[in-house]
Design brief:
Layout (H helix, E strand, L loop, with lengths): L5 E5 L4 H13 L5 E5 L3 H9 L11 E4 L2 E4 H9 L17 H19 L25
Parallel strand pairs: 1-2
Antiparallel strand pairs: 1-3, 3-4
């Protein structure tokens, strides 16, 4: 895995998750992130490496400096590295996760009903391919 880049794993069939990845990629001006679908082989390999259940699809997963973050913690850690005003949300990390995560979980439980889902995982465009995780970027 690239030591300087953080990796974001997302639900590749979720329309909200795909829109979130589009949002992140547009604001990742310093090329700090690689992204990948939780359901695809590189994502599954990374989940396995960090002993996360292969069926885990309930949250963004952020792998940063050898640590794994989930739910609102992952989202806030991502926001602090984006271009624009998004780092201003990072101080919310001071709130305990038990206060932050219920809202995240509520949206997560309803994301398919509200935003829909695709039949297959997202296929990156030519311009996006360098931002998507590949199997050779995961070191075991």
């Amino acid at each position: 895995m690239s030591s300087e880049k953080s990796i974001i794993l997302f639900d590749g069939v979720c329309n909200l998750c795909n829109a979130s990845i589009d949002f992140i990629l547009r604001r990742d001006k310093k090329d700090r992130f690689l992204v990948g679908a939780l359901q695809e082989d590189p994502g599954q390999a990374l989940l396995s490496k960090y002993q996360v259940a292969p069926t885990y699809l309930d949250s963004l997963v952020l792998v940063e400096k050898g640590k794994v973050y989930f739910r609102s913690t992952a989202a806030l850690k991502i926001s602090r590295r984006l271009h624009g005003l998004w780092p201003l949300f990072y101080p919310l990390i001071l709130l305990p996760a038990f206060l932050r995560d219920p809202v995240y979980d509520w949206i997560g439980r309803n994301r398919y009903r509200w935003f829909g889902k695709k039949n297959t995982c997202r296929i990156p465009t030519e311009e996006e391919k360098s931002k998507f995780l590949t199997a050779d970027q995961i070191n075991f």
